[in-house]
């Protein structure tokens, strides 16, 4: 009963995290007076401030002490990858290219598989090969439609896949790693905000209290879904999270098409349809293999005598 309750709570946390991520276009679209780099800098600074409070309240500030050089190098790589991801995403939203940002997160699982092959020498099964081939075809179709490669989508997919790769080998819990990543990025972010303030180019205090509060809110808005995701990851199987992750780009795409009325010609729909077919094949294959492995590891029961 306890295990079932924990999984229910975890699933709710997972849905909450992915729905909040899916609503990001609505939030970041409100920060328009600020440029994408300024928004990124505020996001880094206020997320770090909040995570320091979270670590202090949970008594985990000591976890930042004595980290090895290798760990700090991994943290730096992760910080760079997530900064590129956040900055690209903010740029996509503020330039009314939300549908393309959604495409990036649809592609991301397949890019992660590709990284596993290139870096960890993982072997592809036939279903994964078909999924990757369909994804590559989709990118070609969308490139022809746009007249250029979907740079925002590809950058988002690659940077988040690299971030996941760093997290996979990083010996830190999510709260500590997120705080450490903020420590690495904060000097650059603070320096940029100081520069904007000195040159009069910043928007933090010049567009009313509402705008200031929204920029401050970038911290909790960023941290909350990450904390919910961490709680979900501890309580539900990864396959469940794998299915839930498509909520985010689906909601983002819906916002771009239904609210922002971004252009979606037939050729672009074809590209997205190929991605969805690739993800369906990929996800179905993953579920089948998980169930097969579970059956193979379950102890056989002796017949009742």
Automatic annotation (TrEMBL):
InterPro entries: EamA_dom, EmrE-like, RarD. GO terms for cellular component: plasma membrane. Keywords: Cell membrane, Membrane, Transmembrane, Transmembrane helix, Transport. The chain crosses the membrane at residues 9-28, 40-59, 71-91, 103-120, 127-144, 150-166, 178-198, 204-229, 241-260, 266-288. Residues 10-143 form the EamA domain. It is found in: Cell membrane. It comes from the Bacteria. Its main location: membrane. It holds the Pfam family EamA. It is a multi-pass membrane protein. Belongs to the EamA transporter family. This is EamA family transporter RarD. It comes from Rhodococcus opacus (Nocardia opaca).
């Amino acid at each position: 009963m306890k295990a079932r309750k924990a999984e229910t709570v975890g699933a709710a946390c997972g849905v909450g995290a992915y729905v909040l991520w899916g609503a990001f276009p609505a939030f970041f679209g409100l920060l328009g007076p600020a440029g994408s780099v300024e928004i990124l800098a505020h996001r880094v600074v206020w997320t770090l401030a909040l995570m320091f409070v979270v670590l202090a309240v949970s008594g985990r500030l000591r976890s930042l002490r004595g980290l090895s050089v290798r760990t700090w190098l991994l943290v730096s790589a992760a910080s760079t990858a997530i900064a590129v991801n956040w900055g690209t995403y903010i740029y996509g939203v503020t330039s009314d290219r939300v549908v393309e940002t959604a495409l990036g997160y649809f592609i991301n699982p397949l890019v992660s598989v590709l990284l596993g092959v290139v870096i960890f020498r993982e072997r592809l099964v036939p279903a994964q090969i078909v999924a990757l081939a369909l994804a590559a075809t989709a990118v070609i179709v969308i490139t022809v439609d746009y007249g250029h490669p979907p740079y925002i989508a590809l950058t988002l997919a690659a940077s988040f896949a690299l971030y996941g790769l760093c997290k996979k080998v990083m010996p830190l819990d999510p709260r500590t790693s997120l705080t450490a990543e903020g420590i690495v990025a904060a000097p650059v972010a603070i320096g940029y905000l100081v520069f904007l303030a000195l040159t009069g180019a910043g928007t933090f205090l010049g567009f009313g209290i509402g705008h200031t509060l929204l920029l401050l809110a970038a911290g909790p808005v960023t941290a909350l879904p990450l904390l919910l995701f961490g709680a979900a990851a501890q309580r539900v199987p990864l396959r469940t999270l794998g299915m839930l992750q498509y909520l985010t780009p689906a909601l983002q795409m819906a916002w771009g098409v239904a609210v922002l009325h971004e252009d979606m010609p037939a050729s672009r729909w074809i590209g997205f349809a190929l991605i969805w077919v690739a993800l369906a094949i990929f996800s179905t294959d993953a579920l089948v293999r998980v169930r097969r492995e579970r059956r193979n590891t379950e102890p056989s029961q002796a017949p009742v005598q």
